[in-house]
Structures are given as structure tokens and as C-alpha cells.
Amino acid sequence: MQHEPSTNSPEQAAQEAVVLPIQRPEGCPFDPPAELAELRERQPLTRLRYPDGHLGWLATGHSTVRAIAADTRFSSRYELMHYPFPGTEDLEIPPATVGDLTGMDQPEHTRYRRLLAGKFTVRRMRALTARVEQITAEHLDAMERQGPTVDLVRAFAHPVPALMICELLGVPEVRRADFMERAAAISAPESTLDEQIAALAGLGDFFRDLISDKRAHPTDDVLSDLTTSELTDEELAGIAGFLLAAGLDTTANMIGLGTFALLSHPEQAAALRADPGLADQAVEELLRYLTITPTGVRAALEDVEVDGQLIRIGESVTISIQAANRDPARFDDPDTLDIHRKATGHLAFGHGIHQCLGQQLARVEMRVALPALFTRFPTLRLAVPPEEVPLRTDMNIYGVHRLPVTWGEE
């Protein structure tokens, strides 16, 4: 990686451009690539060469990333983006599918978001706390019966948010096992690409069938509420898939990777166990420290000046959320996990119009699940050496594929 003074001269810009650092430090599964900190310190908005040859930008500073994420002159439409990851040289990115809010701009995005926002308010999500506590306790009971050595992802981290998504969407109990099996197949490490595609198609059919039932026999859930809107069945199925993708894999990996991080920092786990009242702060700090969605991309819809640099229309900007959340200009001692910290202002849920709709539900689930886990199993520990925990290094959402844990006397 080369570091040269920044300039707007096209020739010099091409010479000084870097490639996106993606390699995490060896033995440090929770830390971003070290080169990101070097770039952020040198210049928080720098030239980036994309694998397809495009010359764009990389934002690493907290204030810079926040400003770009909030600026609607930058588009989130997939088809306008260049991807910064290796292996995407020949990738032609199609537009977002119907209902995928992540890949669309105003006014289409506003139309969907306005219909959904009222379903995910702080009050409505906090009202689900008792149900989250019940589901959490049931799975901890099952884990205790199954143990003492289990895969925490399969036994706890995945099923708790999956069942909450079922509750929100109104998936009947008799159909939940089928739903969860299809959802798990999409991101399972052993699934082939064909199996993942088949699972996605199967979920689409599942949702269309469920929507038909909700129109005929509405119940008290988000999907039934939405059937009274102007949305078509195809839009409803797309939104259901979007809510599943946004609300399951993210929270499951935060619980899995968050547990791994706390087990690797036993003084932090002990503090949470001693005072479950720290749960709110612990969750915010884990969101900041781990940043499981490390990178986003935007495309300039017009010439925009940011940090004194001119980003031209059509240029892609990669926003490094993991670098922003470790910016010492925003957080003191940012590379230290400290659950006593007030980590307000982190960007783990994004910022601007694309800020995560379901963030309050995710918070409720994590605030319940993590203290309950460490209180129920005070001797919880890894069942394998840390370096043998399989990490999701090749996926958009970082985390652990499996987390073997055990408890009791050593």
C-alpha cells in the first residue's frame, strides 16, 4: 500500500490511490485491518482503486463517514456502485429487488420506509421485551439440557432472533421450523451456492403463501398490518425478505461474535455478570467495537465537496464503518473494549435515511440475551482454542460460523 500526498490531479490521483485493506491483524479477530488506521490518520478521505479499475474514494474518519452517509447526493443504488472487494472485477451489479430498501434512493425508499417506520418504534420494540426474555430462557434451558459443550450459534445466537422475526412477521408456530430451516440454509457455511439460491427462492414462495393467508385471515403482526396498505403481494414478499435479512443474520452474529469477544476479555464478561444493569452500555460498546457490517458503498449523483476534496459525479465512495467506529477523534482509547464506556454516536446501525429500521429490536434482543447467557452459565468458556473459531471473513456481515462453548468444572 502506498501513501502519497493527495491531489485532485487525475494523474497524481491515480498514482496515490490505495486498494481497500481487508486483512485483519493475525490473532486479532475483533480488530479492523491496521492499514485503515494509518489511512485515517493521514487523510480520512483518500483515493481508492477498485478491482474493476474504477478510481473512487475511501472514507475512514468518523465525521467523514457520517457526513457521506447523511448526504442524499450520494446514492445507495447498487447498479451505480463499484465494489471495492477482490473478485468483483467483472461483477455487474443488478438494481435492488422489489422491497430491498438498502439499494434504493428517494422517493421510492421514502415510500417503503414511511410504511415500515411506525412498526419499529422504540415503544413497540420495548413492548416485546417480555417475549424476548421468554424465548431466551427457553433456549438457555435447552442449551443446558444439551450441553455442556454446544455450538452457541446453532443453540442460541441464531434461533432467538429468528423466532422474534417469526413473531413480527406472524409466521404460525406450525410453520416456524420450515421457515427457520430455509433461513439458516441461506448463510450456512456448508451450503453450496445452488443450495443458497434454492433456499432464497423457497423463502420467496413461503412469504407469498403467508401473505395470501394474512390477507384472508389477518392476525396481530407486521405483515398483516402491511396487507392493509397499497403494497402489492410482490412488494410485501420483498419487504418480508428484506426484514428477514436485516434482522436475523445481523443480530445472530452480534450475539455470537459478542459472546466470543466477552469470553476473550474475561474482565468485561465478569463486569457484565456482576452487574446486568450494564447491558445497555455493553451492547452499544460491542456494536461499536465489533462493527459486524464493516463497509458500505455510495455513488455520487453530482459533484460533491467533502473534507476539501471534490468527489465527482459517478465516483464510488467506500465508507469504512469499522474505521469510523475506531476513530480516536470520536472515541477515547478506541481499540479497547470497555463496557463501561458510553459509546453513543457509533455508526454500527448506519446513519442518514438508511439507518437500520430494526435497530431497537436488535438492541432489545442483545440486552436480554447476553446478560442472561453469562448469568446462567458463569463458567462459560470456549471449547476450542480461539484461533480455531471459524470466522465469517468472506461475507458481508462479519461474525462466527460456529462458536463451540462449554461450562462447568475444567
Automatic annotation (TrEMBL):
UniProt entry keywords in alphabetical sequence: Heme, Iron, Metal-binding, Monooxygenase, Oxidoreductase
Cell membrane listed as a keyword: no
Pfam (any one): p450
CDD domains noted in UniProt: CYP105-like (cd11030)
PROSITE patterns given in the database record: CYTOCHROME_P450
Annotated family: Belongs to the cytochrome P450 family.
Protein name: Cytochrome P450
Species this protein is from: Streptomyces syringium
Lineage, highest ranks first: Bacteria, Bacillati, Actinomycetota, Actinomycetes, Kitasatosporales
